[in-house]
Amino acid sequence: xxxxxxxxxxxxxxxxxxxxxxxxxxxxxxxxxxxxxxxxxxxxxxxxxxxxxxxxxxxxxxxxxxxxxxxxxxxxxxxxxxxxxxxxxxxxxxxxxxxxxxxxxxxxxxxxxxxxxxxxxxxxxxxxxxxxxxxxxxxxxxxxxxxxxxxxxxxxxxxxxxxxxxxxxxxxxxxxxxxxxxxxxxxxxxxxxxxxxxxxxxxxxxxxxxxxxxxxxxxxxxxxxxxxx
Length: 229
Description:
By secondary structure, the chain is an all-alpha fold. The chain has helices at 2-6, 14-35, 38-41, 48-66, 79-102, 111-132, 134-149, 164-173, 181-202, 205-217, 223-228. The longest helix has 24 residues, at 79-102. The two termini are 25 Å apart.
């Protein structure tokens, strides 16, 4: 029940509603464009990380516009949520636009990458808090703390520790960081399944399957469980 309340969305109108709707529509459109290899058919060389960056930009911007930071916030979007949406859009589009240029120097530390990486981690933490609450944020925070201060831990937990610049750059741009496997799965497999489910529901396929299962197993003992399966 707490999760359901935490993901309660704003009821927007006017320009904010139009902007949010555009972002939400752009997510599946961009997914279909890249997952169907349209760029390759157009002889446009695109890194998969570029699509992930675009997906991250659209998702973060939509979250900050649509999901309030607390239950006490009104339906009106405060300035800091606009700032969060703009920042989320920027850090994702930076990867989308710049990744071909920086792909050969991912290990190099530059001030702009450190700043953008730090901002991205903060934005993701706040987005996760708004969507699923504090537990995931706390777990991620513990691991980041360990990455900084591993040299303070004894025995097998001892490590050299990472500097802020190297950790921020790694989390932001490396394939094992933010744009790694979890986000790639969300931007590909999960997106495809959601689109398929919505299309099936829109054409009445979901009702057909439900009615078919009910007609087939509804008259037997334990029919509800069998229908669900």
